[in-house]
Amino acid sequence: MKIEINGDIGWDITAKEIKQQLETMSGDIEVQINSYGGSVFEGVEIYNALKAYNKGAVNVVIQSIGASIASYIAMAGDTIKAYDNTTLMIHNAWNIAIGDHRELRKSADICESLSNIIAKAYASKTKKSLNEIKNLMDEDSYFYGQEMKDNGFVDEIISTDEEKNKDEAYALAVPKIKEVLNKKDERYRGDDLDKLVAKLIPEPEKVEDNTSKLNALRARLNLKERILHG
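^ that's the sequence the OP posted. Answer follows.
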C-alpha cells in the first residue's frame, strides 16, 4: 500500500489526508516523497502520524526531491531509500512574522524550537552529533544521490540509467524551495505556540476517564514552558 506526499505540504497534501489514509491501511506501507516542503506545522503532524503507525513497517522512498520539512517527514521511515538522481535538503525552520518586538521574538523562539526538534530526528538517523546536524541546517545543506547515503540520511540508493548532474539539480531546486518557504500560512497566526504544542502532544481522542487528557495537558504545559524558557 502506498502514500504519496507529492507537492507542497499543507496545501497540496495535508496531515488530515495522511491520517485518513493511514486509518484504512494495514501491513507494510510505502511513502513516496516528491516535495519541496511547505508548512512545518503540517509536516510535524504528518511525521508523528507515520511514527505512530503500528500495523506494519513504514518504508520511505524519495522519488525526486525531499526538501525542507519533507526531508523531516522522510525520517519517520523504518527504512529510507532514494533514487540516485534525487536531492535531499535540510535547513532551519522558517516562519513569516508580523508584529512588534514581542511577536517577532516569539516567532523566533518557535522557529528555534522547531529546528531543535527536527535536528534530533536527523541526528538519530545519521548518527551524527546534534551540533554537526545544526551546523548543516544553518548552511542550508543539499545532498545529491550517493551523498544522502554517505551522510546517513538514507539506507539505500536506487540506481538509474540517467546521467547525474548535481549542479543542475541544485539550480532547479533552490528557486522552488524559496517559493514554498515564502508562502504565508494564515492558519498559524496568533496562537502559533499553542498550535505547535498541540501538534507535538495531541489530545487523546478516546478515553474512559479524564486521566489521559490531564496527563496530555500537563505534558503540553511542560513543553510550552521549555520552549519559552529553555
